[in-house]
Amino acid sequence: MAKNLFVAYVLWWFLGWLGVHHFYLGRDRHAFVWWATGGGIFRLGWFRDLWRLPSYVDSANEEPYYMERLTEMIRIRKSPPFNPSRFIGQACFGTFLGHLSMLAISEDFAVAYPIVRSLVVPFCVAIGVHIVGNIGRETGHFKWAIVGAVIPALKLISNPHIVVYMALLSAILFQRDRSFKRKPSQRGLCSRLFVLFVAGSMIMSLWGSALYFNASVTTSDGETIRFRDAVDHFFGSPIWKEFKETIKALFHEGWEKGWENMWSRFVQSLDPEGEQNAYQVLGLSKGVTQAEITKRYRTLVREMHPDKIRNGNKEEAAAAFMKIQSAYETLSKIKEKRARRQNYRKQKEYEFRDM
Questions:
Q1: At 134, phi and psi to the nearest 5?
Q2: Which among 122, 103, 97 has a CA at the least distance from the CA of 32?
Q3: pLDDT beneath 70, residues of the chain
Q4: Does the global pTM surpass 0.85?
């Protein structure tokens, strides 16, 4: 099926950072690189596609003039001319995959088994260089990419920043044995999607491993906690347990009463207006009147006013006092809005009856 330039530009504008326009044109490697990097480094690649798309469409459609020019270039030259944009892309994507793979390996594991990082990182750098080098009508061998990445790898243990030099040397040696690609490989849609899914899963697993093993979060006290420890603590926290209980309750309710209003019940359980939290702060149950809310608010204000706290942390008391005030205002506004809506409905019913 012939590719349409207008469709390609529409996909470029709306989903270009995901590489959908390249997938549409059969440039799966290009699409993967754009997806993995968010449209190229700092979206420069996405911007460059603005004037490169017509050529990509002509290549995908194998327009006569394009194929004649390609055939003539193959006859004259043994290998494609040096392309600075492609070279920079190879170095950048190789560096990206190299650093990502380095972060994905636990620091404790890297110290215990340094040889693993020295093997995995160059391999990922070479993959990145090879992928970009085989985009479009050009192809090259993986052996030169891996040779260029392995040579500086001996210093990787003492200098992690050597990854940049690994990518540069890999991209330089990759230029030694390149050739033209007369006919891009033709695969079915399901096969293409499967390959991209596997490649995308590998990238996501690297990111997940990097976050789990080497990322950290900083608390308000300035204490640094490993991300994996923070995740473990979160799944043991009261808020997670409460969320699980809410989901279970919604599931049982949907099972017994039907699933028609499941979404509205789920949104309500998230407490978007802060009503449930306000009731909890004031120590009230849902369904009390405005008079009861006001009475409870005045009682708490007298008891929790910061000026009455002599032995204790006045900052914590002031924060609790502000929560009480906010909870009262939230419930009062909700009650007022509901009363207005109810009066409006009654008025409409009376007008309907009088017609």
A1: -110, 15
A2: 97
A3: 155-160, 219-222, 259-260, 265, 269-270, 308-313, 348-355
A4: no
Greatest alpha-carbon pair distance for the chain in Å reads 92
Tokens 């392995």 appear where?
Answer: 150
42's tokens? 């700092």
Backbone angles phi, psi at 86, to 5 degrees: -65, -40
Three-class DSSP category at 226: strand
Kindly report the number of other CB atoms within 10 A of residue 340's CB atom: 10
- Look up residue 340 and give its two tokens: 């207005």
CB neighbour list of residue 257: distance below 8 Å, 6 or more residues apart: none
DSSP for 36-100? HHTSSGGGHHHHHHHHHHHHHHHHHHT-HHHHHHHHHHHHH-SSPPP-HHHHHHHHHHHHHHHHH
Residue 83 phi/psi, 5-degree rounding, is -115, 110
Residue 336, both tokens:
């007022």
Q: What pLDDT does 354 receive?
A: 60
DSSP label at residue 39 = S
Helices and strands (DSSP H and E) totals, the chain = 17, 4
Among residues 185, 146, 143, 148, which one has the least CA distance to residue 165?
A: 148
Beta bridge partners of 224: 218
Residue type, 184: P
The first and second tokens of residue 205, run together, are: 């697993």
Identify whether the C-beta of residue 89 lies closer than 8 Å to the C-beta of residue 195: no
**CA-based angle 272:274:275, to the nearest 5?**
110
